[in-house]
Amino acid sequence: MDLQTRSLGRSELQITTVGFGSWAVGGGGWAFGWGPQDDAESIRAITHAVDRGVNWIDTAGVYGLGHSEEVVGRALAGMSAADRPLVFTKGGLRWDPANPMAPAARDSQPASLRLDVESSLRRLAVDRIDLFQIHWPDEVGTPVEDYWGEMARFVDEGKVRAIGVSNFDVALLERCEAVRHVDSLQPPFSLLRPGAGADLIPWAAAHGTGVVVYSPMGSGILTDTFSRERAAAMADDDWRRQSPSHTEPGLTRSLALRDALRPVAARHGTTVSAVAVAWTLTCPGVSGAIVGARTPAQVDGWLPAGSLVLTAADLAEISSAVERRGAGPV
């Protein structure tokens, strides 16, 4: 498939507008898991995405408490060096292996980040990480200047090619930028959560910072097959059981917005998933969208977003549907 590519800000990285998201690849049994997942199926999904032209994978140390990175590493090991995609990962979360269902602490102390980057290199079995990101702002009292300075040293040492942040606000971005350029920002952004389009993405565009958005399909709701029955059948350890968009009254409103995308998808001969993802890519400043998958078939559901061009009429229709949905749980 002829996927569009964009620059990741001012970095040297050229990425396809859709990338493979490995959150669910981590499996279940931890605080923000998606329920059980077969590792062999994950590797098939990753390989399929790369074979179809996707040139980057996003993961994180905390996904499956290290397991997602290990699975991604196994998938990479089965590819030739020429075919290997770029690998993006994240650190700055500290978990307790003895209590996996407890939320991880947001700890970006320099020593903790150094342990994270070394652990990610080992689990991924790579010599250098293409993009290393701080997953969430520190909450243990570490000044952002201290931990962003350590991230810059990882680049200087050749451990990573580019550095970024996830879930940061504009004030923190400004403080990071004063220390060293922020190569990439990773915010949540979708038709259900469009807030980043108001301030974060414009800030990134103005500063030459790339943007890779996460959860563009609303964590699975903005897909053709999601239903109330599917929501009810989610595994007990699927974090979405506590999500306002996946439980009532938010679920009804989320599904109504999903259904409003069906006519747009039909006109283009594509999927609702592709329309939802393509919408995020129309926002000026967005470099790419992280799109998760558990199977090769799920990859095929959103892959057309990488070449889909929505018209002005499409965007107006989608905007009207968002306005009808109104404010509320997301």
Give the overall silhouette: globular
Percent helix range: 25-40%
Oligomer: single chain
From the alpha-carbon coordinates, what is the Rg to the nearest angstrom? 19 Å
Strand order in the largest sheet: 3-4-5-8-9-10-11-12
Order of helices and strands: EEEHEHEEEHEHEHEHEHHHHEHH
Beta-sheet strand percentage? 5-15%
Number of helices: 12
Spans of at least 5 consecutive residues whose pLDDT stays below 50 are none
Largest sheet: 8 strands, parallel, barrel
Could you tell me how far the N terminus lies from the C terminus, measured between alpha carbons in angstroms? Answer: 32 Å
Please give the number of β-strands: 12
Structural class by secondary-structure content: alpha/beta
Mean pLDDT over the residues? 94
